[in-house]
Each structure stands twice: as structure tokens, then as C-alpha cells.
Amino acid sequence: MIRLVLPTEDYEEQVLDYKASFERDGDSLDGTAGLLNFRTFKEWYEALLDNSCEATVREGLVPATTFLAVDENDRLVGMLDLRHRLNDALEKCGGHIGYSVRKDERRKGYATQMLSLALEECRKMHIMRVLITCNKLNFASARTIMNNGGVLEDEIRTAERITQRYWITLS
């Protein structure tokens, strides 16, 4: 079992280790509030706080809440961004929710649990129709989305990849 928690300075070492593990493995740091783009935890954390509400969101972004997915031992196993609304770019290739799970914790059902918990957060925020996208070649992510009720609407082809767009309707 995992739980979603808000990042705090108590998680600094684990967040930086998470970033390093993805860089080592050459994986995409999805759902991390742009962690790859920051040199220090402090810079990332300040941006995360700025981007958590409409009044202070940084230019070109939408308000979002970033969660850490931690296991029963409080170990960081995944990260997730829940965007409060969509802009044109997110409508095409980002959606309301982005997530990642560290490589050594994959295939344990964490992504499915994370998405389920994020959908509960969407309900609290009255986001009742949730868009989630993934690379067509990311079969695990597509399965995670479908396991949480995602229905494929369409695919968007770009020069780099084919993005699948799934909608989940909450009641």
C-alpha cells in the first residue's frame, strides 16, 4: 500500500535520489513538476509552491499539486502531478495527471494505486472528467489508465511519438 503526501523539506534527500535514479536509467521524469530542470531541491520546491495556486503560477504553466507516493516505510516510490486545469498543450499531450514510478519499484501495482488516489483528489477538486495521456509504446501506463476506467478517445501523432488520450469520467 502506498499513500500520496505533499512534498516537504523532510523528503529532500529522497527526491534528489529519485531524480538521480531516473537520470541514471535514462527514464522520463513524468509527474515531477519539472524536477529535471532544477539544480537544487530548494529551487524545485519554491517553483512547486508557486505553481500550486492560480495567483502565483509561473508563466506558461497551470496550477498543479505535486504528490510523492510513499510506501509503508515512507520510502519514495513514485511522483505525481495533478493539474487543476488544462491549457492547449496539456489538452493534447499532458492531461490532468502525470506520474512516474522508480524503476526498481515498477510492476508492483504502484502506478495503478497512485492514479486511483489521484482520482480521489480530482473528486475533491470537482474535476469530474479527467484527461490522462501516455506514449502509445508505454503499454504499462496504458494498462494503468484503463485499470482506472480510462477510455481511449484518440491518438495524436507528432514527430517524436504517438500520444494516446484517455478520459476518465468520475461520479
TrEMBL record:
Q: What is the superkingdom listed in this entry's lineage?
A: Bacteria
- Any coiled-coil regions, as ranges: none
Classification via InterPro entries: Acyl_CoA_acyltransferase, GNAT_dom
**Domain (N-acetyltransferase) ranges:** 1-171
PROSITE patterns under this entry?
GNAT (PS51186)
Protein name, please?
Answer: GNAT family N-acetyltransferase
Q: Which organism is it from?
A: Hungatella hominis
